[in-house]
Model the fold of this input.
Amino acid sequence: MLSMFNPLIKMVLTGCRGLEWLPILVARFSLGLFFAVSGYNKLFVAAKHEHLIQLMAKIGMPFPDFMALFLGSTEFFGGLFLMIGLLSTFCSIALTIAMIVAIVTVEIHEIIPKGIGFLEWMSWFLYLPQVMYVILFGWLMTTGPGRFSVDHYLAKRLGVGED
Done:
């Protein structure tokens, strides 16, 4: 009797590898869309671009005009490439670096209250969206972009794919 539940028990305890492509695709595409839109706004919406330059200058970033252009381009093109799964690991690394810089230079100083205990500080820190982006990018770097990606297609064509 218990043996008829083995497939269900296995899925509950070990996951469903046959469907792992779906959350990889959803995560990669939604992160890519988010960063493409964010980068677009930083590059092509004058008020947002100017605000970013002012923020870069305020936090003491060298060459704020260039850095605003660089960040916007990294987000825009990195996001577009993630959406289609092209150079996904490289884009994940670049966007992870951007998020770590944002966390260290802005978020910790501007968002997290001063003078709080360690556990409360960790609660605030882990609530930052940039922290979740870093975690998701790390996951994408280790799983790969999934089978529905340009990278997967190129890997197969070059003979370096897993299947």
The longest helix spans residues 21-44. The chain has one domain: 21-158. Residues 21-158 form one domain.
